[in-house]
Amino acid sequence: MICKDYCEGIINDYDKIIAYESCSHTIKKIGYDQINSIGFTNKPTDVKIVVILLGCNTVLSSFMTFYYSVYRAFEQMKFEAGFKMAFNALSVGMVIAVLAGHWQLHTFVVGTVLLTLINLIVLLRMLGRTHQVQGGAQIDLPFIRQTFRHAIPLALSTVFISIYFSLDTVMLSFWKDNRTVGWYTADYRIVLLIMTFVGLFYTATFPVISRLLNKDREAVRVILAMSLRIIVTLVLPATIAISLLAPQFIVLLFGESFKPGALALAILVWTVFLSGLSVVYSQTVLVSRHKVVYAIGTAIGAVLNTVLNFLLIPQWSLDGAAIATVVTELVLLVYFAIYCNRRVVNVPLEKRLIVPIALSLALIQLFMWSHSWPVHFLISGTAIGALYFVLLFATKSVTTHDITDVVRSLRSKESDAS
Q1: Which residue in 127, 135, 329, 371 could disulfide with 274, CB within 3.0 to 4.6 Å?
Q2: pLDDT tens column, 82-124
């Protein structure tokens, strides 16, 4: 109910909320020049203003992401974490102001844009002091040509990734109504939230892997194997739980009106697990400077996802879009895993992962039986989750030695870099 109450506190009209969701996702994905072709001009005026402001915010955020990459390059993610924590804390404050009725929609959006702008200015000034990075513009044609030559595969990859992660929402807006788009958007928000946490571990290890790949392949293999183990042991049970309890999660977060999207969520959440495995292989391929191979993989994903959406959405609506996304992620996992294991570094899934998988299935079954218990499903889920971790350590599927090895490796490499 939290998200639904938040939306109703901004706009007391359900159809207008869904129109806003539909437009905001579309404008971010296919650009302002395509607005007329998707019927943007037919939306309410306040929705147009909000979406345009969010488009401006997206542009500012892209610059902020670029400057964050400087800190990542120097393996100083603590600065990025500090900026993001401050930004998110202020954002939560603005949300509370909206929920309390002190702010209206436009005030909230303008505040978000201003907050992003201030964050960008402070970030740029901080970079100027710590790494002598200047924000002024200058033209260096040889540098631009060299940069474009190396960046084109990555730029194309970004476009392809945007296609297979976003085209389904755009195609749903063509073939289905705004309510359907809103249900699917709600599902995607849950999935993207979980994927954010999944990406945190690999974001921390990415610079280390990039530096070690040509120096110590065995250390890279150990780090990547541990990454796969963490994803299987932590993400798999969560994926299964959300898939089986999708209706309860939808009602809890968005309310009864979003319940028609439950089946799509049950399917779409498997994207989290598959992409978690895939990113271990795909990002290793990328840092090994096989940019063309990486671009080809993302192009395969874009083409496959487009074809599947054309085939499945007209017949199965948002459920078809979810199936298309999951199948695309599965194909990309196979593609990058095969290439990485053959050409870069061999990181197979270990046999010891069988125990976490078996434990996940057994405890999820216990979780389903717990519905007859006189307790809330979140309480029983927390208890069973704690039991899962106890059994992981008891069966030595994950040991403290594994964790300390990875932490020690990361810290030692970080100290070497400094």
Answers
A1: 329
A2: 777 777 777 777 767 766 666 676 777 888 888 888 888 888 7
8 A C-beta contact, residue 213 and residue 287? yes
Domain ranges of the chain: 1-138
Tell me the CA distances in angstroms from 110 to 44, 113, 318, one per residue in order. 18, 5, 32
Threshold 0.90, pTM exceeds? no
Q: What confidence tens digit (pLDDT) does each residue in 178-218 have? A: 889 889 988 988 888 888 777 776 666 777 787 777 788 88
Q: Which of 108, 113, 140, 100 lies closest to 5, judged by CA?
A: 100
- Per the CB < 8 A criterion, the answer to whether 350 and 229 are in contact is yes
DSSP-assigned letters across all residues of 270-334: HHHHHHHHHHHHHHHHHHTT-HHHHHHHHHHHHHHHHHHHHHHHHHHHHHHHHHHHHHHHHHHHH
- Considering only CA atoms, which of 313, 311, 310 is closest in space to residue 322? 313
Could you tell me if 9 and 98 are in contact, meaning their C-beta atoms sit under 8 angstroms apart? yes
Q: How far apart are CA 277 and CA 267, in angstroms?
A: 17
Q: How far, in Å, CA of 179 to CA of 194, rounded?
A: 23
* Distance separating the N- and C-terminal Cα atoms of the chain: 47
In the numeric block, the tokens 């050409």 are attached to 343
The Cα–Cα gap between 235 and 38 comes to 36
* C-alpha closest to that of 18 among 170, 168, 186: 186
The closest alpha carbon to 178, from 47, 326, 328, belongs to 47
Which of 100, 121, 98, 101 shows the shortest CA–CA distance to 110?
98
CB atoms closer than 10 angstroms to residue 29: 15
pLDDT in tens, 316-331: 999 999 999 999 999 9
- How far is it, in rounded angstroms, from Cα 188 to Cα 21? 12
DSSP string, 169-183: HHHHHHHS-HHHHHH
- Look at residues 143, 141, 142, 83 and name the one whose alpha carbon lies nearest to residue 115: 83
